[in-house]
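Hello forum,

I keep getting stuck at the same step: I have a sequence, I want structure tokens, and every attempt I make locally crashes halfway through. Rather than fight my setup again tonight, could one of you with a working pipeline run this one for me? It's a single chain of 289 residues.
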Amino acid sequence: GAVYVYKPDQGKLGLFDNLRREVDHRLLANPEAVTIMARDGTRLPAYLTLPRGRGKRGLPMVLMPHGGPYRVRDELRYDDWVQLLANRGYAVLQPNFRGSGGYGQAFEDLGDGEIGRAMQDDLDDATDWAVAQGIADPARICVVGGSYGGYAALWAVIRNPERYACAASWAGVTDFEQQLRYSLDYIGRRYRGDWKDKVRGEERGFDLDDVSAAQQVARLNRPVLLAHGNRDYVVPFSQFRRMEKAAKEAGKKLETLELNDGHGFSSSRNEQIWYDRLTEFLAEHNPPD
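Reply #2:
Ran it on my machine without issues. Output:
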């Protein structure tokens, strides 16, 4: 993006500065808005970014769910991760699954109690759409995300390994029961019940352990890159340790990356380390060529 200044007395709009001077916009891929029909008829807004000069069919793809998951959405705008991966030859699909914000209360409420279930179905349905359209090679699809998106990536390869070749998670939730207890410490007492109800839903007997990667890691048979900042106070570093320990006990091997950082990146150096590891991981387990 860029900042422009309008001078009404002159009737002129002039460029003030580019927000990201180091990014050559001529090299960027253009995202487009698409609509995907979920299996229950719910319309899912999504964004598809295709790599330049590689056509539109049979591409390696990265499915990239957003964080949150509630009251958050992907938008039709510049995104570092998306452009990096498109530049490396991947199609990138960003579905706004049920529960995402910005599409009305009814759409958000569809996500209540659906973490790892209908919200994950939406991601699978988005993948199926890309395959049915001929865009994605079904044998070359990986899932990459941060925060809740990191959780969704981990859960994708555990729940549906037949669909996905690998997963990469930055700061992802690995144990939702533990994360819920942690989050409630930072939520006002009057709102704690509402938040628990939103995460758990109304269905009796729903066990978050059934949809938690650390609790279900014995089912894992796909490559995983697990990365986290050891100063993360949103999704605490204990989530990383819990997944690491559970995988070791189950005899599962993970690729791991620990950075001295928080939930996001406080330094360009750490961000570069993550990008390097991510692209190396994808090149090995889902090569673009």
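The mean pLDDT is 94. If your local run keeps crashing, start a new thread with the error log.
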